[in-house]
Amino acid sequence: MAEDALITGAAAPAGNRWIRSAPVLDSIWAIAVAALIIASSFFALVDVENPLFRTGAAPLRVYALWLPVLAVLIAVFAAAQRSVMPAAVASGILVPSIALLGSLAGALFFDSVSPFTDAGTPLSLGCAAVGVAMLLRWFVYQPVPERGVESRPTMMSARVLLGIGSVLVVNVVIAAFRDGPEWSASFVVATMFMLLTPLVVLASAAARTVVANSLAANAASAQFVAVVLTVLFGDQVGVASVFALRTGVVGLVALGAAAVAAVFGMIMAVVESDSASVISVDDDSSWRWDVSDGM
Fold first, then answer.
1. How far apart are CA 42 and CA 95, in angstroms?
2. Among candidate residues 90, 181, 78, 81, the one with its CA nearest the CA of residue 135
3. 132-146 pLDDT per residue, tens
4. Closest to 192 (Cα-Cα) out of 93, 130, 104
5. Rounded to two decimals, what is the model's pTM?
6. CB-based contacts of 79: which residues, under 8 Å, 6+ apart?
7. 117 bridge partner residues
8. What is the band of 278 on the pLDDT scale with cuts at 50, 70, 90?
């Protein structure tokens, strides 16, 4: 059977599928999400002419245009090579873009100003939802490495990544409450999307696979770069905390640490012994049933 004959978790036989290769399917998901993000950037979020608020304008175009274009290029390469690793890279690069679109569109869509939103708001929220579905399927359908055959990050590196991910979560939550929010659906939805990169880091630590570590490393790196560029391009008018996904200095340090820890986990991946998966058998014959017992 060919290496790409089966997609883990799929019910249909490989011969009945339009897309038989898992890396190609992952790449198509990344390309579709990136295309939706780019398309949504040309539509205004709020129904006002001046200023025209859309994600494709500065300083947010790094999220809505630059990162998705880079993801498309890498995903095309992944599909051509039928390689899962560049497909994971492309998907990870899209994480901060999904987080920004979801947080902005969610805050506007569920806020009291929702009657004044434009077409870009529901379109961006829909893009973010599709992006979340793409990330969920990564952790649902990616197989766990076989013991004694395939390498995976060590437990120590997974614990380190788990700790850094927890710091990222706490940092976003503290920053959210520091902004003095009012409890509402818009605040909850926006905050949940801003937690997307920390949650991806935590999920990758729990999955403990090389591919998941690659996804986490690129998600953390992409958000680090996006936040820095957003601040640089928005220094004349100031950058709101929500535009930087409530990252802050502590978050930037944690994002860098998460990327380094994930890459280190990939480099130090080892083949685990399969002895833990073998059930030990007690060879004591005193408990065995004999045909003469009870007769």
1. 20
2. 90
3. 999 999 888 877 777
4. 104
5. 0.84
6. 23, 24, 27, 28, 31, 87
7. 46
8. very low
